[in-house]
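Example S7 (C-alpha cells).
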C-alpha cells in the first residue's frame, strides 16, 4: 500500500471499524494487533536512536516533545498518514488539528515515573478531543515501563490535580480522586513493537520507570477538533534546551476559526 509516492508505514491489517469504535466509545481505549509495518518499525527505531545521539545531556529522554517542530520529518509523516487520520476523523469530525508529536522513550534502567494524569488539562487544550495514539517501537511490558490506563474513566470529566516536585510532569491527578482498587481496575499495555493503542485524551494514564535491560522506545500523537481552544504551551528543544512555542497544524479539513493555521511545519 502506498501514500502518494511513498510506501505507507501502516500495516495492511490495521482496521478501525464499527466494533473497534464501539469499544473505544465505551471503554475509552482500543488496542490494535497491527499498526506499523515491520519496515516502518525498524525505520522509526533508527530515527530515535539517531536522535538520542543528539539529545542534550540534561534533557530527560521523555522530553523529546514535538520533534516535528525541530526538523524531524519522519515523525510528522507518520502522524499524518491518511488511514490514521481516518480513525481520528471518526472520533472528532473532519476538521483536525495535530497539536503534539512525542518521542517518549525510556532507555534501559532509566526513565521517570509518569504520574496519573489526563492529557487535555495537563497540556492546556480543550474542545472535542480524540484518542491519543501510542505506538511502541519495542515490546513493552511492566518491566520496561509501559503505560497503564483506567478504562471508562474518560467520562468523568476533568479530575482535580495537584503539583508535584518533578522536573517534567509537574502535575498529577490528586490521588484522592482515583479509585482505591486502581491496581485491579487498570489495564496495562503489554504490546509488541509495531502495535498501537488509542486512548481518549481525558482517560487517566500513567507509566513506570524502565527497570529492565531493554529499551522502551515509543512515539505518540495528539489531535483535536479545529473548533477547540488552542491554549498556549512552551516546550524545550531536545538538542539545546531552548524553549519554543507549541504550534497547531491543520492536518485535515478547514480552519473553521480562521486562525490562519499552517498545514505542515515543512
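Recovered sequence:
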Amino acid at each position: 500500500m502506498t501514500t502518494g509516492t511513498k510506501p505507507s508505514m501502516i500495516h495492511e491489517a490495521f482496521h478501525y471499524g464499527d466494533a473497534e469504535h464501539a469499544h473505544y466509545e465505551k471503554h475509552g481505549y482500543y488496542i490494535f494487533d497491527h499498526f506499523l509495518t515491520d519496515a516502518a518499525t525498524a525505520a522509526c527505531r533508527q530515527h530515535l536512536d539517531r536522535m538520542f545521539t543528539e539529545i542534550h545531556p540534561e534533557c530527560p529522554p521523555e522530553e523529546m516533545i514535538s520533534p516535528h517542530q525541530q526538523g524531524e520529518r519522519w515523525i510528522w509523516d507518520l502522524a499524518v498518514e491518511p488511514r490514521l487520520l481516518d480513525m481520528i476523523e471518526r472520533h472528532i469530525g473532519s476538521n483536525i488539528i495535530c497539536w503534539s508529536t512525542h518521542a517518549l522513550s525510556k532507555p534501559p534502567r532509566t526513565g521517570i515515573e509518569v504520574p496519573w494524569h489526563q492529557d487535555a488539562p495537563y497540556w492546556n487544550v480543550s474542545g472535542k478531543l480524540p484518542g491519543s495514539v501510542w505506538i511502541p517501537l519495542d515490546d513493552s511490558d511492566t518491566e520496561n515501563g509501559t503505560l497503564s490506563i483506567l478504562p471508562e474513566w474518560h467520562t468523568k470529566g476533568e479530575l482535580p490535580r495537584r503539583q508535584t516536585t518533578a522536573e517534567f510532569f509537574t502535575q498529577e491527578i490528586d490521588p484522592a480522586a482515583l479509585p482505591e482498587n486502581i491496581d485491579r481496575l487498570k489495564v496495562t499495555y503489554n504490546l509488541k513493537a509495531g502495535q498501537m493503542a488509542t486512548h481518549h485524551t481525558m482517560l487517566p494514564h500513567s507509566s513506570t520507570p524502565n527497570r529492565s535491560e531493554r529499551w522502551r522506545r515509543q512515539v505518540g500523537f495528539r489531535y483535536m477538533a479545529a473548533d477547540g481552544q488552542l491554549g498556549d504551551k512552551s516546550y524545550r528543544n531536545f538538542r539545546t534546551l531552548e524553549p519554543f512555542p507549541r504550534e497547531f497544524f491543520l492536518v485535515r479539513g478547514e480552519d473553521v476559526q480562521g486562525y490562519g493555521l499552517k498545514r505542515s511545519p515543512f
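Notes on this example. The chain has six helices and 19 strands.
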